[in-house]
Amino acid sequence: MSDQKLAPMTEPETGALFDADLQQAISRRAAPRRPGPVSNATMFGWRALLKIKHVPEQLFDVVVTPIMFTVMFTYLFGGALAGSTIDYLQFLLPGILAQTVIFTTIYTGVTLNTDISKGIYDRFKSMPIWGPSPLVGAMLGDFLRYTGSSIIVVLIGLLMGFRPEAGLAGVLYSMVLLNVFAFGIGWIFTTLGLLMRTPGTVMTISWIVLMPLTFASNVFVDPATMPGWLQAVVNANPVSHLVSAIRELMAGTATLSGLLLALALPAFITVVFAPLAMVLYRRPR
Amino acid sequence: MTSPLAIETRQLVKVFGTNRAVDGVDLRVPQGTVYGVLGPNGAGKTTTLRMLATLLKPDGGEALVLGHNVATEAAAVRQRISLTGQFASVDEDLTGLENLRLLAGLLGFRRRDGRARAEELLQGFGLAEAAGQQVKYYSGGMRRRLDIAASILVTPDLLFLDEPTTGLDPRSRNQVWDIVRALTRGGTTVLLTTQYLEEADQLAERIAVIDHGRVIAEGTSAELKASVGTSVLHVSVLSADQREPAARVLREQLGIEPYAEADPTALTLQLDDTRHAPRALNALTEADIPLRSFSLGQPSLDEVFMALTGHPAEPETDTMEVTA
Ligand SMILES: Nc1ncnc2c1ncn2[C@@H]1O[C@H](COP(=O)(O)OP(=O)(O)O)[C@@H](O)[C@H]1O
Ligand SMILES: [Mg+2]
């Protein structure tokens, strides 16, 4: 651009701003017609996209651990656990997919809390925009993160030899289910993000909750091989229900009852935590 | 529904636990002027501003902003004000241009108009070169200017600037001052808070001095100075060990308590009558205390603050803005 070359002129030695440009910049500007809620939320969605573009690490950070698990478990224990590494991968990958997306939900709370602690929400809240639009727009970013991280995991799986019997459709249905599940449990982290003082605390608490939840599940091994008391725990774990539903979707054997069971937890959390989050969000600080 | 006052508060109160952060503040800010709220750290400046900008609910009293009650007509207030907070509220991960385009979009600018407006502001604020860089790489001064640009995409009738130059180098400070002056020429009322007396003196037509959540003085800079005494006498002795004897002589001869400046050789006296000055000079000469300098002048705002509160206003160490 030609005015790029002129730019240094705007900051001469004295530190004064280039007067004509300054006058032009501060000349009176009337407000355009106030946009509706959809437009506001879309802008926040665009912001979430930009953040993924500028900070792509946020996608890779969350998939590194699951990928390590996939490789390690498949090649180290696959043979012992399922007879062959390929058979074990068929069993493991849907579980890892669930684990990845569940870990990704942590970012929902962390990004929200970062915004709040940096004062950016003060600006949004003092603007004449639809109140919940920052939260709604952020969800669009969340969906992209969930989808992005699951695509990475599925691709690695395919490279290692994972072959879903239900083919592409199975993968797509699984992703939809994962998004809905993550949207639901995301409300917990949104609430945490609104309550905690620092992004670090949100992160720590989230891990403390999610680690046992994903490990005491059927992600890595079939609960049939576990002692009775542990079987009871694992079978009651909502993460197990999600993993079972994804295995069935990938295998083309999904049942309505299995899907409903998987969706019970996110539905419950949405009903309880979404209104709570909205109240917390609106509360003047 | 226009009021001749941009801001009018009556006994505004905000309590945090047992801390009365804002303790009965009365402000009357005329439209079209720069109004300065001057006070040390913790005086309650930010809390007052956040209440006026509808970000915080007052616990008592009343505030009208551009004729609208902040408690009951928050939406109407938000339509016409803009706030630049004490700590930059721009997105560090986004570029300067993206930040402004995002906010323009939220305000209802169409895509192309928003981009044009953003570029115009970046150009005017000396940020054209940095437009495509992520804000995390901006200097403190650049961040500040972007932050102000973000507040005036649509020209507000009233702009709140919370400590706009704290931690900035003199050059960046001048640039912010230029922007504020240009804005008021365009008809925007600016309410700014500051810890710097010089800044209030330079920019503000009227100043409210606040301390511990209360307004302790209000007026033009000249009025504040006049309220302290007609003039101030600055005396500087040759060496630090002569300051105490000089202070004793002045106390005895004039009956005024000298104030010891940070400079170990300097003393300041508030005179309510300029005729005391020759008497002071005579007394010091008779006591055989040699002087490096002796001058009579208007009190600085610093001295005003000292006289009003009994403690200096400037922070002991400059609170630098944390820049990553
Ligand atoms: N959110 C808050 N919770 C509790 N105390 C607060 C809060 N914000 C400010 N305070 C307290 O209120 C007082 C005034 O703070 P503030 O308005 O930030 O002062 P200033 O902006 O003049 O430095 C201080 O004692 C501060 O500790
Ligand atoms: Mg403050």
Number of strands of chain A: 0
Low-confidence stretches of chain B: 316-324
Approximate strand percentage of chain A: under 5%
Beta percentage of chain B is: 25-35%
Assigned CATH superfamily of the domain at 5-80 and 156-225 in chain B = P-loop containing nucleotide triphosphate hydrolases
Proportion of residues in helical segments of chain A: over 70%
Describe what you observe in this structure.
- The complex is a heterodimer of chains A (285) and B (324).
- Helix content of chain A is 77%, strand content 0%.
- Chain A is mostly helical and 285 residues long.
- Chain A has one domain (37-282).
- In chain A, helix 9 (167-195) runs parallel beside helix 13.
- The longest helix of chain A has 29 residues, at 167-195.
- Chain A is elongated.
- In chain B, 36% of the residues lie in helices and 27% in strands.
- Chain B is built from eleven helices and 14 strands.
- In chain B, strand 1 and strand 2 (19-30) form a beta hairpin.
- Residues 316-324 of chain B have low confidence and may be disordered.
- Classes of the chains: A mainly alpha (285), B alpha/beta (324).
- At the A-B interface, helix 1, helix 2, helix 3 and helix 7 of A face helix 2, strand 6, helix 3, helix 4 and helix 5 of B.
- Bound molecules: adenosine-5'-diphosphate and magnesium ion.
- Magnesium ion (MG) is lined by residues 45-46, 86, 162-163 of chain B.
- Chain B: It is found in: Cell membrane.
- Chain B: GO terms for molecular function: ATP binding; ATP hydrolysis activity.
- Chain B: Belongs to the ABC transporter superfamily. Drug exporter-1 (DrugE1) (TC 3.A.1.105) family.
Describe the structure concisely for a colleague.
Chain A is 77% helix and 0% strand. Chain A is an all-alpha fold and 285 residues long.
Write the layout of secondary structure elements.
The complex is a heterodimer of chains A (285) and B (324).
Chain A: H1 2-6, H2 19-26, H3 37-54, H4 57-82, H5 85-104, H6 106-117, H7 120-125, H8 133-160, H9 167-195, H10 199-215, H11 228-236, H12 238-251, H13 256-282
Helix pairs in contact in A: 3-8, 4-5, 4-8, 5-8, 5-9, 5-12, 6-9, 6-10, 8-9, 9-12, 9-13, 12-13
Chain B: E1 5-16, E2 19-30, E3 34-38, H1 45-52, E4 60-65, E5 68-69, H2 74-80, E6 81-84, H3 96-107, H4 111-124, H5 140-151, E7 158-162, H6 170-185, E8 189-194, H7 197-203, E9 206-211, E10 214-219, H8 221-228, E11 231-237, H9 243-254, E12 259-260, E13 266-271, H10 276-286, E14 291-297, H11 301-309
Parallel strand pairs in B: 3-8, 3-9, 6-7, 7-8
Antiparallel strand pairs in B: 1-2, 1-4, 4-5, 9-10, 11-13, 11-14, 12-13
The complex binds adenosine-5'-diphosphate (ADP) and magnesium ion (MG).
